[in-house]
Design a protein that fits this description.
Blueprint (H helix, E strand, L loop, with lengths): L3 E7 L3 H12 L4 E4 L11 E2 L9 E2 L10 H7 L5 E2 L3 E9 L2 E8 L3 H12 L3 H20 L10 H8 L3 H12 L2 H8 L3 H9 L4 E2 L9 H10 L9 E2 L3 H15 L2 E3 L2 E7 L5 E7 L10 E12 L3 H8 L11 E10 L12 H4 L3 E4 L3 H12 L9 E4 L11 H6 L2 E11 H5 L2 H17 L20 E4 L1 H8 L34 E3 L13 H13 L4
Parallel strand pairs: 1-2, 1-13, 2-10, 6-15, 13-19
Antiparallel strand pairs: 3-4, 5-9, 6-7, 8-14, 11-12, 12-13, 14-17, 14-18, 15-16, 16-17
The structure holds flavin-adenine dinucleotide.
């Protein structure tokens, strides 16, 4: 390791890796300093259950927002695979179990399924009209994500071309999303299905005046102009691995197990003091180092940066995370009460449970009052139905599957006082939520570890903050932003600037950060490459 670099990147999440690749390929010297013993941050695959050769996407798991351009520029070998089923929402009607199945491959199947639920195809047609708004929004927005920020007013002008575009702007950027949902859709289950994309990872409701729900919804619908969420073949860790390889090939250097000690962001040269923990035993301070850099890139959130620059982080109420992640390994898939759907079809997409519109208004209310909701809304995924390469051949042969549950309306504040107890209670509730749709308890399908324990791991927002530094477990580091400049001084900038000269955010905390996208990593790199005349 040298003592002087062009750029030091603090944190080695996937955005840090994207930034490192662009910079190193342009000939700059780059060092990444990561606190964990692995690279990739929230994009990591791990052998969560040591007795089984199964590499689970421990945190993030689906990709939609990663631009084709970054894949091409960096020569990444990524396969993002379509799921046959988009979503499955089980329900009981007149004492009979059924399900709303939206297919990625058959429009007719989706239409019939909505007719079965509602009695006509009106809701199907309305849903198409509603989603057309986000498609139109994506058309206007997507190509700007890798460019300097455009003023809000200019953006609005771009939408002022026809009735549908104007309606898209109004519904998605101006009024709380709940209004459009209620204007277009009448069925509670369909409304709920749409709303979930506005709530993933954050604590909000349809009529939230902050429009946090709108921002979250947009991030879920504009990716590569289609908004389709795909399974990264090889698990999310394969995305991090490809990016790490690209960065190393270009010459970037890495240090893991880093304890940052001090950062000086004020001088012309930025200095970073750190210690490196001993890898195997975890005991402290093998090595104490100081490096200098002309540019400092911050891959972790503003909250972590604040700690090191001695300026208290001033969070907004919308920064709080709301997530409950359960990773599971199953010996076999459970059968459903809705007999006409094979488990492989229902679990191949996003399986929604307790996510009716009114039900989520109730769960939001209950969580706001400081308790776990009676019914905990969640979505469940079985990625091995789309890509089983994350399982050892022997597990595949035996019919093993991984399962992931992402819970909503579980804000950080519920876990802050007593994480252990509340995590256990939440886990039980989420499994109960699933069990109401299953012909057999999910617990009966779990793989069993050698010590007799079930192969299930739960992560609360408190756990996520501890593991990755994400502010109060916010999976996007902090509140998502609209994809345009909202203040005059942001116009024409990259959305990565901080209060300190030559210190840039290259992760989710940047404007247009959030999710597995590489976008802020790219944008921070462009900011610096402009200085060198490479752009
Ligand atoms: C449970 C969960 C599920 C998600 N699901 C999805 C999904 O399916 N699809 C999707 O698009 N997005 C998803 N997200 C969001 C997405 O994963 C993140 O927004 C994105 O990966 C963040 O990437 P990043 O590179 O900006 O930051 P991070 O991944 O947060 O990387 C920051 C890095 O900084 C390191 N760091 C923190 N503190 C320090 C310190 N003091 N010193 C040194 N290093 C430090 C961290 O360890 C980490 O490696 C999910 C997130 C979570 C948590």
């Amino acid at each position: 390791m040298k003592s002087n670099y062009d750029v030091v990147i603090l944190g080695a999440g996937h955005n840090g890796l994207v930034a490192a690749s662009y910079l190193a390929r342009a000939g700059l010297s780059v060092l990444l300093l990561e606190k964990n013993d692995y690279i990739g941050g929230a994009t990591t695959s791990q052998k969560v259950f040591p007795d089984y050769e199964a590499r689970l996407s421990r945190y993030s798991y689906l990709v939609s927002l990663f631009p084709e351009k970054i894949i091409r520029d960096l020569g990444l070998n990524l396969e993002l695979r379509r799921r046959a089923t988009a979503s499955f929402t089980p329900y009981a009607k007149n004492g009979r179990h059924d399900g709303l199945l939206l297919s990625n491959v058959s429009k007719e199947q989706s239409r019939q399924s909505i007719i079965n639920l509602t009695g006509s195809d009106t809701e199907y047609e309305q849903m198409k009209r509603f989603y057309n708004l986000s498609r139109v929004f994506a058309e206007h927005v997507w190509d700007t994500m890798l460019e300097p920020l455009v003023a809000r007013e200019e953006f609005q002008r771009r939408f002022d071309v026809d009735d549908v575009s104007r309606e898209a702007w109004r519904s998605l950027a101006e009024e709380p999303l709940g209004r459009a949902i209620e204007r277009y859709l009448q069925n509670d289950l369909v409304r709920g299905l749409v709303l979930t994309d506005a709530k993933v990872g954050i604590f909000t409701h349809p009529h939230d005046p902050s429009l946090l729900q709108n921002r979250c919804f947009l991030y879920h619908l504009i990716g590569n102009k289609t908004g389709e969420w795909k399974v990264p073949v090889g698990g999310m860790g394969s995305v991090a691995r490809e990016l790490e390889e690209a960065a190393r090939k270009a010459g970037a250097e890495f240090v893991t197990n880093v304890d940052l000690r001090a950062i000086d962001v004020n001088g012309k040269k930025k200095t970073v003091e750190f210690e490196v923990r001993q890898n195997a035993s975890g005991t402290r301070a093998l090595l104490s180092q100081t490096v200098e850099a002309r540019f400092l890139f911050v891959n972790f959130g503003r909250n972590v940066l604040a700690k090191f620059v001695g300026k208290p982080y001033q969070p907004d109420a919308t920064d709080e995370g709301s997530v409950f992640k359960i990773n599971m390994l199953l010996r076999r898939l459970p059968n459903l009460k809705a007999k006409k759907y094979p488990a492989a079809e229902a679990f191949c997409g996003t399986f929604h449970s307790d996510e009716g519109y009114e039900q989520m208004n109730a769960s939001y209310e209950q969580a706001s009052r400081g308790r776990l909701p009676d019914k905990t809304p969640c979505e469940v995924y079985c990625h091995t139905l789309t890509d089983n390469s994350i399982l050892a051949p022997e597990l595949r042969q035996k019919g093993f599957h991984t399962m992931t549950l992402f819970g909503l309306d579980t804000p950080w504040s519920l876990f802050a006082k007593n994480n252990e107890t509340t995590r256990k209670q939440a886990e039980t509730k989420f499994i109960e939520s699933m069990n109401q749709w299953l012909a057999e308890p999910l617990e009966d399908c779990f793989a069993v570890a050698q010590n007799g324990g079930l192969c299930i791991e739960s992560k609360s927002p408190v756990d996520i903050e501890e593991a990755l530094g994400m502010y109060h477990g916010n999976i996007f580091q902090d509140a998502l932003t609209f994809p345009f400049a909202e203040r005059k001084e942001q116009v024409g900038r990259w959305g990565v600037e901080t209060d300190y000269e030559n210190v840039f955010l290259c992760g989710s905390s940047a404007r247009r950060g959030g999710a597995v996208s590489g976008i802020p990593g790219h944008n921070a790199a462009m900011k610096v490459l402009e200085v060198f005349g490479h752009r």
